[in-house]
Amino acid sequence: MSERIEGHGGELALAALRAAGVREMFTLSGGHVFPLYDAAHKTGFPIYDVRHEQSAVFAAEAVAKLRRSPGLAVLTAGPGVTNGISGLTSALFNASPVMVIGGRAPAMRWGSGSLQELDHVPLVAPVTKHASTVFNTGEIPNAVRAALTAALTPHRGPVFLDLPLEIVFSSDEADAPTAPDVPVIEPDPDDVARAAQLIAEAQHPVIIAGSDVYASDAVAALREAAETLRVPVIANGMGRGALPPTHPLAFAKARRAALRGADVVVVIGTPLDFRLGFGDFGAAQVVHIVDAPSQRATHVQPVVSPAGDLRLILSALADYTGVRADHEDWIADLRTAEDAGKARDAQEMAADTDPIKPARVYGELRRVLAPDAVTIGDGGDFVSYAGRYLEPSVPGSWLDPGPYGCLGTGMGYAMGARVTYPDRQICVLMGDGAAGFSLMDVESLVRQQLPVVIVVGNNGIWGLEKHPMQAMYGYDVAADLQPGLRYDDVVRAMGGAGETVSKAADLGEALERAFSAGVPYLVNVLTDPADAYPRSSNLA
Fold first, then answer.
1. Does some domain include residue 184?
2. Which family, according to UniProt (predicted)?
3. Is residue 295 located within the same domain as residue 378?
4. pLDDT, mean of residues 302-330
5. Which of 303, 334, 365 is the last residue of a domain?
6. What is the pLDDT of residue 46?
7. Angle at 159 between CA 30 and CA 269, to 5 degrees
8. Using CB atoms within 10 A of its CB, is residue 119 exposed (0-12), middle (13-18) or buried (19+)?
9. How many Å apart are CA 478 and CA 462, to the nearest integer?
């Protein structure tokens, strides 16, 4: 006979969440979800609260990304849930196993006009893997487990449950919950063998490794495959750092040369979307390796597309024993291009001009960031430079909005990252436009003693819109912000610290003060509005 547990709806839900490895809750207080708070408070389960629900979902997503396990956001009914929809959508695009539990107006009075009475499920269903309402208190543990199984099954993604008021406040008993049973998707061995042969026999192969390599815990398998087959690797998204920058097969600056000269492009764990030219690599053959059949591209036709557990696929590539071409001249050519690119970058990152060039900001950051620092991008123009100039040294240390491109992730991601890594540097790279979305949640960081460093590239414009609009029309509208705005004063007013930097020579010392402060600290860098990044699609 299975063990039984008893309690109110919040206690039953929390028991199932704990069984799945959930370690904390991100929320904004609301009466519809009080029983979840009660269960957490009575058992010492950490609660982190925010000033806007989107930050709670983004914090849960950061945890899900970094730990490769479920992150939890608890939102009150109505506007609490709708405020979290952008976070859910980002999690869907990023394949992040986020669980949102929403409060819900009482089912027994449905249709009578209760406070915040709204059927959330039709709104969130298009941006989740699973969305449902639980109408029986005793069914809550099973419902949580089923939702989390869906969230963790490749291709991963967010899930949603809402609990009517009388259901979550009532008590019942249920079987003791167990951890989700996540299936392993076995790849077709013929597809894997065909992919291995193409890669091994190619004259100029290149691998593009994306976020799912990290999410699938396949970093070691990627390294083994690349080293065994001797294939250059370009990493995107959370794949960055899978091979450290010093690895002889790691390339970042030779991307254009690699893709122009490749005869086989192997894209692993990322979609063939706008960030990769929609999968058009000229005459090169394309191998698209994905974690589930649903992720195979439908707008282009790769030569082969193995689908399944990425560790199994990459390990099988490493075990290939057939004929192999010699790739050493190809690797050497790319290393020449890589070294030339690094030399150009070094010159740009040393620019001693005022107004400050964004490249100089990243040059100074490279000096103070620890190898395991978590860097978070929240912005357009300013963060585009981060993708070019920062090279993570370890996997799982880079967080950006991903292909949905949603601004406002910054403070939520920072909270989730700080909770996950209490002893690492956490650095948020934020455009001044993005600062308008979530900067108020610095108060949440201050109040809960979660120090992070925020570097704002303040050029007083929407850079990715103003310059293109000027080029297209000869004018721009709705593209200006207040120049020189003191975002550091905002942070100080909320109990943090900060300063404004207008001279390139002052950047280094300002960043050193920020990382030693022990409180949320904002470095407000006045950057050159004329120096805009030429494209917006490098975040992958």
1. no
2. Belongs to the TPP enzyme family.
3. no
4. 97
5. 334
6. 98
7. 135
8. exposed
9. 8
d(CA 353, CA 164): 59
Cα–Cα distance, 96 to 146 (Å, whole number)? 16
CATH number at residue 364: 3.40.50.970
Q: Are 476 and 469 contacting, i.e. CB atoms less than 8 angstroms apart?
A: yes
Please check whether residues 256 and 326 belong to one and the same domain: yes
Q: Are 262 and 234 in contact (CB under 8 A)?
A: no
Q: What is the pLDDT of residues 465-497, one digit of tens each?
A: 999 999 999 999 999 999 999 999 999 999 999
Range of the domain at 138: 4-171
Amino acid at 345: D
| Boundary (domain end) residue, out of 126, 144, 171 | 171
DSSP codes joined into one string, 284-334: -EEEEEBSSGGGS-SSS--SB--BS-HHHHHHHHHT--S-----HHHHHHH
Q: Do the domain assignments include residue 451? A: yes
Tell me: do 508 and 419 sit in the same domain. yes
**Shared-domain flag, residues 152 and 296:** no
- Does the residue 344 lie in any domain? no
State in Å, rounded, how far the first CA of the chain is from the last one. Answer: 49
DSSP, collapsed to helix, strand or coil, labels residue 501 as strand
Query: pTM of the full predicted structure?
Result: 0.96
Residue 269 CA to residue 233 CA, distance in Å, equals 13
Instruction: State pLDDT tens for residues 204-257.
Output: 999 999 999 999 999 999 999 999 999 999 999 999 999 999 999 999 999 999
Number of domains in the chain: 3
CA distances from 88 to 24, 37, 58, 123 (A): 18, 21, 8, 11
Spatial neighbors of 365 by CB under 8 A, at least 6 apart, are 390, 427, 455, 511
How far is residue 47's CA from residue 50's CA, in Å, rounded to a whole number? 10
